[in-house]
Target: Diguanylate cyclase (GGDEF) domain-containing protein
Amino acid sequence: MGKEEYVETGVGVVPTGLPGGFFIYEAEGDEKILFADSNVINLFGCQTFDEFMEFVGGTFKGLVHPEDLYKIENQIQAQTIFGEKRHDYVRYRIITKKGDVRYIEDFGHLLHWMNGKSFFYVFIVDVDQNEYLNSSRNSYAEAEVLAGDRETDKLTGLFNMSFFYHKVQMLLNSNEVARQESSFVQFDIPNFKLYNERHGFKMGDELLCDLGRIIKDVFCSSTVARFSDDHFVVYSNDPKNVVIENVEEVYKRMLLADDVNKKVRVKAGIYFLDDQRAEVGLACDHARLACNSIKNRHDLNYCIYDDILRDKLRRQQYVIDHIDEAIALDYIKVFYQPIIRVATGEVCGMEALVRWVDPSVGMLSPLDFIETLEHFHLIHLVDEFMVKKVCQDMRMLMDEGLPVVPVSVNISRLDFDVCDVLKLLDDFCEIYEITRDLIEVEITESAFNDNTGLIKHEVAKIRNAGYEVWVDDFGSGYSSLNTIAEYEFDVLKLDLIFLRSYHNAHTRKLMSYIIKGASDLGIKPLCEGVESEEHYQFLKSINCERAQGYYFGKPALLDETLENIANKGMTFEGYGE
Model:
């Protein structure tokens, strides 16, 4: 290192030429260095204290390699300020004035004046790279490293979940923080497992480290932790508007990554604490739930946990907890809505729609439970019940000698993943002696956006067995003319969004083109959302074959639908008056 000799300090001598030395810095603020002995100065390739201070910027932060700084700051804080001990042991790199990288062991102790001002007294030792990377020795220093791992995440250097809980709970219990705003933020990388599959675990780890650094840099005065995998959590005392700005800044920085493979869209959930006595784990759960609620939303980058989301999550949980009971006790009801032959005004069919009439919470609309059941892959339970109930009702009508027309049933795209849809249809048709031409299968158009070939194969099986297949919700957001060209089906059902824009001349012209094109291909067009005589007459003028909407009747229980049809003077196709 240097010439071996003793240097007179005025209060004794210091041996020089050693691979280690002693320095002091302030524990608060900029962490200003107050003293460094000659060995520390020489370790950095400097000759004088002034030269050393200028090189490191006069602070402890400037002394540490930039890539290691936030890691070891977390470790020092965990071991001294929030730990049972008041001393720390950490390892990091430094860069000398010549640009050489050296590996340092740091032994520090936190000392306090009576007035509360604090200082770190630190002894550092230069170790070679092999020892720095060695994790197999059982020295006291290595044991301290392992102890430190209990508080910080090994990959990113951020706090781990258990220590985050410990530290933040201490902060929330303090009088100073109790008077401040408190926020919890969770960051996730959507489909991170898929990212690892595409780019490998090494790049995945690099991405996690990059995200951790960006979050720590943006939320510079906050407590940041990595809980697991791609889940990062922040505790902040910044004002609400600053928290939101910081979340958006993290999102922007991740998209501006130099490496195109690391440009990812992160999602965030924010929970503004409304009770300082709240348990940290529960607050983190709220942020997590807010984040999870937008995982599949491409138009939102963050979500704030509020009363609306709280109620939505409670409804979701109620649906999951009670779906089996609702089916077993017939709380799930099948409503019917008439479908009209436009040219004649006769009822040529009905659509079966599910509703949940719960004795505890009242009527649950499809918006309250269908999406939830699809999300948790339970929708097949309702669809199976619906097919069974429709077949039961049709058998009852036949046995009573009442008119029967085909009924369309909605089948979810997810049903094809968990059950044999054709067998499901055939089983109930056989049990209740219902011919296949009386059951029509509606599949939402978004389901045809399938590159596995599963839907195309299953649809072909269903049609070949004798069931009509309908494309539902055409025009609701996924529309592609390729759907009409590539799949074989019988009915094209235009979404009600078209007639909602009926007064737009372009919409009317587009509808006429779609209906003519479908008819030319041998596909029967049906338009839903008919709410007026004007709508009805327009569909007649463009030769739309079938129509459905409140103008003819709202969805209702079978008895009510039949009564409504009779009251309107409508007749069933093939039965006359």
